[in-house]
Amino acid sequence: MTTDSPPVDRRRWLALAVVMTASFMDLVDVTIVNIAMPSIQRDIDASFSALQWLSEGYALAFAIGLITGGRLGDIYGRKKVFLLGMGGFTLASMLCGVAADPQLLVAARVLQGAMGALMVPQVLSIVHVTFPAHERGKVFGMFGAVMGLGAVSGPLLGALLTQWNLFGLEWRPIFLINVPVGIAGLLLGRHFITESKAPRALRLDLVGVALASAALLMLLYPLTQGREHDWPLWGFVSMAGSVPMLAAFIAYERYKTRKDGSPLVELSLFKVKSFAAGIGVQLTFGVASGIFFLVWTLYMQLGLGWSALRSGLTGIPFSLAISVAAGLSVQKLVPKYGRKVLQAGALVMAAGVLTYIWEAHHYGADIRSWQMALPLAVMGLGMGLIVAPITDAVLSEVPRAHAGSASGLINTTQQLGNAIGLGLVSVAFFGVVDDADPRRETPSDIFGGAFTHAMWWVAGGLLAVFALMFLLPKRSKHHEAAGATEDAVEPVAADVAVPAQQAEKELLKR
């Protein structure tokens, strides 16, 4: 990576505005979709599995493409790949906005995720080569603030655009709004972003990508679609076949390591106990979050009959609590208490989930937004204690030479967990809906029961997260050299975007 300091002029701040806008677009487009799902279902007659794929397809394509997207930037130029990703993301957004049937919409969402995987990994690399070392701390702070804003504004923006029904387009403006923003970003980025490449970039591992993609699709496709087909035999065969496909992927990665040292996944990282445990934490946390954010939206709008705007406003305490707790955890709590803060976050979030289960059962269809504020705020506080410091904790014992690969794998794992969680909604939520008797139960009773059932899954996932955190180091290792400090800050800044996508890319990914 180039180390020469760039000229100190205003152009670098315009470049920063462009890449931050791209990250904001990606984050908001993840958080914005859930709130509009009931409107999408009514307008184009989408099935429940199609609604799952709107988020799951995006998350899966984004996760699978993240590492390869970063390497493409290193090889062919980060500016070039960033602009390609932004252009593709803008085109995919337009296709989403004009889609007339569920299949085309899902395909466009998958394309969006793939283009986001080209665009997003370049952002921090571009920042690194555009700004001198003494300015990067300030820049990463701004980056985190923008991501936090995205987490808060995404669901609310989606609710407003859906509720306003601009030009009679109903939900479509949530995607079409990206088109003028993307075009402006392309024009400005072409002029103000400085091109850069890695001096010795690793080679692509397209076979590894294909094997990993096949293994995940063999698991997730039947998991998501099986319910609509009454759980056919081929679905169980496919899910069972994902295990040997995963084994083939691992075997090939070992071969790729011996051959040219550029595997898609650096398997040696899993010899570091804290990293392996951290990957388990990210995966499990992603699963729990993926389940919650989808069933929460469906519960409020389909079960309780609330409008998109009311549902979006109801989530504000959650988003604000995340922002407050994330700042406190990194600045005050983790330096003093270490791993205990993350474990407390898992328990606090689980307590919020249990409170929510009690309220949903106690108040039933009469529950009000203000009554949801308490469990949502508690859940947000718990999530905030986890999402900001988790990457630093997981990377603490990873050799610095592999910090970049490890950070990319952490973010990828989190997105994969989110995709798996969305797939499990078929069992945790829709399975209960299917088993209910609409002749004896009202929609609020049916969806309320499905919601509480799915929330028990979320609570179980959070307790698993708490247990896995015992394998993390009690305290992260602090780097004393200035250069090492910069290296440590960068992955953390990258991870701020993830919670917002997950907190559904996080908000902190819908």
From TrEMBL:
It is a multi-pass membrane protein. The chain crosses the membrane at residues 12-37, 49-69, 81-100, 106-127, 139-161, 173-189, 201-221, 233-253, 274-299, 311-329, 341-358, 370-395, 416-433, 453-472. The keyword Cytoplasm does not apply. Signal peptide: none annotated. It is found in: Cell membrane. Residues 15-477 form the Major facilitator superfamily (MFS) profile domain. Keywords: Antibiotic resistance, Cell membrane, Membrane, Transmembrane, Transmembrane helix, Transport. Pfam families: MFS_1. This is EmrB/QacA subfamily drug resistance transporter.
